Here is the input.
Amino acid sequence: MPSTKILAIRSGSGALLALTLLLNTAHAETGSATAQHASSSKDEAPAPSADCAHFYADINADLKAEMKAGCKPTEAQIGQLMNNPVGNLVMFPLQNDYTRVKGGPIGNYKDVNRTQFIPTFPIKLNDDWNLINRISIPIVSEPVNKHIGGLFGDTPQQIAQDPKTQSIINDPFSRTTGLGDITYVGLVAPSQGKKLGGDGVLIWGVGGTLMVPTASEAVQGTGKYSAGPSAVLAYMGPEWILGIFPQQWWSFASSKKDRPSVNMTNIQYFIQKKLDDAGKWHIGMTPNISINWNAKGGGNKVNLPVGLGINYTTKLAGIPIKYGFEVQYSVIQQSSMPGARWNYRFVILPAIPKFLL
Here is the structure.
């Protein structure tokens, strides 16, 4: 998830070096059968039962109940479930964002790479409610000298006397790679969505989020414990999937040196259109809007990207898996600070539906 770092270095002679970096931060499976032409109808493939036909007609059917009725969920139903942000399935997404950053003191593009492992799993609270748990573990590689983090909270005199200051001035964009801040999201959501007209379903969840200062280098994290509300709201239709997933963090404690307070919002919105009857291919976008409410200057608070990408769902060793690639461009950018311009996102998402466990 995106994070904001504002780094300033001042030398004893009064020279100022400012480095500000904002990271925002079909293969159709078919079964074959050998037809035995005989006069007896018992050799013909049996038609689905009335119960199964009822389930198959609903792309948002309760798949656990469908399995209990002796019916096998269709590929389209599995694909729909994997696009449900509060679906009853265990997911192990691996998401990589390659971001091109520019602006402010950064005249030429600098590259940031953020790889996140995001295990997501539901816990049944009762027959009507689930707790959806989502943990984001990021590995970040960014062009920020790691020694800058050692100066956070220092006075100008301490910065001038620090032996690492000169090396920072000489190479402020030295690349740093390591663990970022880990975030947790917990959402309480109905086990079944609300049926709408046209075979669509409205799904939602509300809860909270927590950001923990686990960064291996100070420049790769906020240095703060932060928490706030989170929610998700989505429409799951037979052709379209539309939704929004906002998160808000306010800092409430520091881990080490005093760091700037955190007041950040991240809003992921998703628009997906099904391309085939089997539900394997979808086209659309899933960008993240980042807002740093503490950024100086009104034009430096928001970064809003749009994008276009494609997703493909199949099976690997019998396990549903989704692949996705998307290109995003920030149509609203920071006016005088470095920020994301282009982002290239690749996702691999294996999942295990709970009805299989």
Q: What stands out?
A: The mean pLDDT is 81. The CA atoms of residues 131 and 164 lie 47 Å apart. Helices lie at 50-56, 63-68, 75-82, 156-161, 165-170.
